[in-house]
Amino acid sequence: MCIIFFKFDPRPASKNAYRLILAANRDEFYNRPTKAADFWASNSEILSGLDLEEGKEGGSWLGINKRGKLAALTNYLEGRPNPDAQGRGFLVSNFLADQSQDSYSYLKRVSSEGHLYNGFNLLTAEFKNTPDPAQESQGEGYSSPMLRALSSVCVRSPHYGTRTNTIILIDASGNVTFTERTMLNCDVSQWSTSSFQFKIQN
To answer: Entry's Pfam families (predicted)?
Structure first.
């Protein structure tokens, strides 16, 4: 199965930090014809690997374009995949090539067409240097300092903020470790940590 890990920080604290760190594995049949990542001959703004399988040529599993649009695809196993389903890789390629649709509009359209494909997970993002109107309108009526405070990964303000952190780990055998760190008495200097372990029941 394919897997993607990513860390996203929209406003890194320093110029040496990263906005996105993404690691991905593509699991596929070894003999499936594939072109390694490169800028496309047909569109030099897009960088991705390409599927060369007959009938699926031009699809991709992970790519980014010079305008900051990124897409990644993972599939999931189904009991009986539909051999006549559309190629999932085109979900990535079409998003990267279509400059007229933002992530939200594209995913909304894909959600109405999802039945045409075998099972998949699709991640899209836009890393443009211009403000996102949808994000800009969320802050209407709030001051800039308040917006900066509320948009942090860990929010800290006098009366509102991140008061609980949770990590859930599940190992290959189904053992779960659930760890939670919670603020005590509305005091950002006092925290309690609880950890629980159990095995998922079959």
So the answer is: TANGO2
DSSP reduced 3-state for 71: strand
Q: What is the pLDDT of residues 59-96, one digit of tens each?
A: 998 888 888 888 999 887 677 889 999 999 999 999 99
* pTM of the model as a whole: 0.66
Mean local confidence (pLDDT), 141-151:
64
Q: What is the DSSP string of 20-62?
A: EEEEEE----TTS-EEEEEE-SS-TTEEEEEE-STTTTT--SE
**Alpha-carbon span 148 to 139, nearest angstrom:** 10
Name 75's bridge partners.
120
Q: How far apart, in Å, are the Cα atoms of 29 and each of 49, 61, 89, 121, 151?
A: 15, 14, 15, 19, 42
Task: For residue 113, name the pLDDT band (cuts at 50, 70, 90).
Answer: very high
Amino acid type, 192: S
* Closest residue by Cα to residue 48 from 31, 26, 30: 26
Per the prediction, the chain carries an average pLDDT of 80
Identity of the residue numbered 23:
A
Rounded-to-5 percentages of helix, strand, coil across the chain = 20, 40, 45
Report the candidate in 64, 34, 27, 58 with the shortest Cα–Cα distance to residue 46. 64
Residue 59 phi, psi dihedral angles, 5° rounding: -75, 165
